[in-house]
TrEMBL record:
Keyword Repeat: no
UniProt source species: Leptospira hartskeerlii
A single GO BP: lipid A biosynthetic process
Protein name (Swiss-Prot/TrEMBL): UDP-2,3-diacylglucosamine hydrolase
Alphabetical keyword list: Cell inner membrane, Cell membrane, Hydrolase, Manganese, Membrane, Metal-binding
InterPro entries from the UniProt entry: Calcineurin-like_PHP (IPR004843), LpxH-like (IPR043461), Metallo-depent_PP-like (IPR029052)
GO molecular function, one term: metal ion binding
Lineage: Bacteria, Pseudomonadati, Spirochaetota, Spirochaetia, Leptospirales
Amino acid sequence: MKFRRGRLYDAFFISDIHYLLNKKIKSHKHKELFQLLDHLNKKEVRFDNLYLIGDIIENWFFSADRRLQRVKGKKRFNKLFERLDRLSSGNGKKYYVVGNHDTTSYLMRLTPKVEHYLIERGWIICEKAENETLIAIHGHQGQYNKFTWMGSILVLRILHVFASAFPAMFKFSENFYHKHLNRQDPSTVEETLHYYQKLSKLTHQDKKVLISGHTHDFLCIPKMNIINTGDWVKSNSFVIQDGKKFSGIRMIARKEFKKEFVLNV
């Protein structure tokens, strides 16, 4: 598919960017993300609303706050958010939905300096964004309750200290977390349906479109009005809303895009 020059859409949704993650530690595809955002800007494509649906700024095993304080780190933040801000039409809102990798807070709060940075740029920080048509939530709420979250974060903070002091331990810390503490993503049809039924109940979805990320599956379940934006690192995918139509799009190469699904509501 191609984007028509000067087109205005209702909303843009993307998740699981894991920004700031060092490519030597784990592949992140930030270069491809900038190609996407630059292409949309050059085409003068604009969106009334922007939704960043969690795991945008990587904050596990190192401090995003400390990186933001550095001149080089501040430039990296600006490199992403200046591009995102340019896509806003100025007629709607910009939502930063907090995901589990965005924070090591027991209360699911962003770090103070990151929160201040985003608020200054006009972003609304929340765990759930909702209007009369849709609900946007990261999705980890379908795998964690308050108690399991707090327990996992306690161990994560301990690993965080070791990895901060000895960067070589990052991979060990990450592997330990995923093996012993991380809730496994649904892998079968039955597990997937159970997960989204739980998420639907938790968010009081009713007839609204529920858009999430987290599980890394780029999918649409029309009967449930469910959309997962996929994992940018894994699938280079995002979702666009045009009125009552939601389109799941994958970037397959520079300036090349494929529409994977359409949900009409």
